[in-house]
Amino acid sequence: MNMPSLKEARKRTNKEVITEKYKKNKELGKTLKNKTFHIKTYGCQMNEHDSENMIAMLKEYGMKEVEDFENADLIILNTCSIRENAHNKVFGMLGRIKHLKGIKKDIIVGMTGCMAQEEVVANTILNKYKWMDFVLGTHNIHKLPEIVEISFKERKLKIEAPSIEGDIIENMPADRQNKYKAYVNIMYGCDKFCTYCIVPYTRGKQRSRNKDDILKEVKDLIKEGYKEVTLLGQNVNAYGKDRKDNYNMANLLEDVAKTGIERVRFMTSHPWDFTDEMIDIIAKYHNIMPSIHLPVQSGNTRILKLMGRRYTKEQYLDLFHKLKDKIDKVAISTDIIVGFPGETEEEFDDTLELVNECKFDLAYTFIFSPRVGTPAEKMKDDISIEEKEQRLYKLNELINKYALENNKKLEGKIVDVLVEAESDKLGYLMGYSDTNKLVNLKGNEDLIGKIVKVKILEAKTWSLNGEYVE
Ligand code: 5AD
Ligand code: SF4
């Protein structure tokens, strides 16, 4: 057992980050061969990409993926801790799986992802979910095949989720879910410690990958026919700050753009580390997409301070307008939390005012959810849940209004779309525009995998309808 510890998870030291290479373990395999597995993924792109790594590792040992968890010999929940409802979904699913395990005694059940790194979750599992087979933390996913093999041999709960600052594991295989767009991690962990956020505790300290490893991965993806990469990290603008080679996010963006990949995206940006140098590079390279996710969280400076965000409303607005001025047709999306402890009606109005000024293309909005061990969990919160729900509703109305307004501006215009697949809408294909808008289009299947010009005929709040023009 290697239990996570909140106290350890808080620590940041100067310990050097080790980069290790993943290697297939030749000793393993016989037990795993031909067994089936199913991974359910919750949460962010980071988790999705971790699942891509886990799927590839299991396949390397001869395991086979199945679509229905009820047919799997191994079920893994790759979990998210960001809000209470992410937790609830996982515990709900575990209830269903327990029932299945009552019938199919041989199946193996494991948990990975951010919940695995939470001390409270690990304790709950130890006390109430003893029937599970393993809990594997975010720092250990390269050890998945080993823990699965042990689990098939000895049915006893194992928890391997130490709260360490973390290293970097290169060379993990990835079974990418999309043939044209790929996620590329550029860094792991986060040192920002926003007061509401669990991520610095579950993902360890900020560790940037070596630039040569990142560029090699991008070049290999180009050779495999990928058209788009999304550079991933909790706080990508801070890329390189933990390294000694004086190489920063602007340098990396430029070098990735120079590889010639057709589309480059990156997420998520923290306003704090967004430099002028980065803005100039984004504006300069046509293959860096004009689409930026820039979470504001609140439009009130007192609340921002309580959140530990390190910028004022005015500083956010300055950056926002600079991006709009310098980057042609840039679309900016954001995240907003309502009902942070102590947020008054007037302070919430400041958020509405900011939204009225920024008219975001898209926004993900949330009610504050206290996370165990974070400073905000202990802050006095006297706003009722009904009030918080009303604020969320009011905010969403405004967000939707501007999303539609922005989309309407595209009616009659021609936009570049990377066509990905057939759409859920019968007879249509789907893809994303340069500004990251979902586009349903009429066109032939042979357009899939290509970047094509599409004339926008109709705008909706969350998508656009159009037709292929060339
Ligand atoms: N409660 C509500 N929303 C949160 N987020 C992060 N932590 C919390 C929390 N405790 C939101 C932030 C972040 C997004 C990924 O999730 O808006 O940007
Ligand atoms: Fe991703 Fe954060 Fe959820 Fe972890 S807690 S899966 S980093 S969104």
Tell me what the structure shows.
It contains 13 helices and 21 strands. With about 475 residues, it is α/β, with parallel strands linked by helices. The chain folds into three domains: about 160 residues, Rossmann fold (3-Layer(aba) Sandwich); about 240 residues, pyruvate-formate lyase- activating enzyme (Alpha-Beta Horseshoe), CATH 3.80.30.20; about 55 residues, Beta Barrel (OB fold (Dihydrolipoamide Acetyltransferase, E2P)). α8 runs parallel beside α9 and α12 packs parallel to α13. The termini are far apart. The mean pLDDT is about 95. The protein binds 5'-deoxyadenosine and iron/sulfur cluster. 5'-deoxyadenosine binds next to β15.
